[in-house]
Amino acid sequence: MHKKERTLAIIKPDAFETKCVGEIISVIEKAGLDIINMRLLHMNREQASEFYAEHKNKPFFTDLVDYMTSGSVAVIELEAYNAIKLYRDILGVTDPTKAQEGTIRKLFAHSKQRNAAHGSDSKISAERELRFFFG
Ligand code: CMP
User: Fold this and answer.
1) What is the mean predicted confidence (pLDDT) over 88-109?
2) Which of 65, 75, 90, 102 has the smallest count of CB within 10 Å of its CB?
3) What topology is assigned to 5-43+72-127 in CATH?
4) Which residue has the CA at smallest separation from atom 21 of ligand 1?
5) Is 53 touching ligand 1 by the criterion CB < 6 Å?
């Protein structure tokens, strides 16, 4: 039997800077995802480093932590059938120059780093990431 699934979206600091937070939420809602929980926060370095621990050894890690702590983010718990894939599909790939037309990153991202939003990439990540922000 099909069961509803939950995933985590983060609207990132560049979207706050360019004032497209509302438009991103609108794309999410129009795709049929339900907003279950939503909170604004300004992450500290410890939180951002822990959240992105899997990228600790990547060359862009320090820049990523700098960026994610540079301003507000919105963390959003989303629900739908197949929510993880559905949201990843409307989010688009990391690099906005390669993202499909109509996706959040094609519409709103600025670069591979300043890419407007985040989405959990698997069921295991979604569970960990939702627990991280919402307990
Ligand atoms: P996100 O989906 O939140 O997951 C990891 C983040 O690291 C990613 O979005 C980008 O913000 C950043 N990132 C991934 N690859 C690169 C890269 N090659 N250069 C800079 N930042 C990157």
Assistant:
1) 98
2) 102
3) Alpha-Beta Plaits (3.30.70)
4) 113
5) no
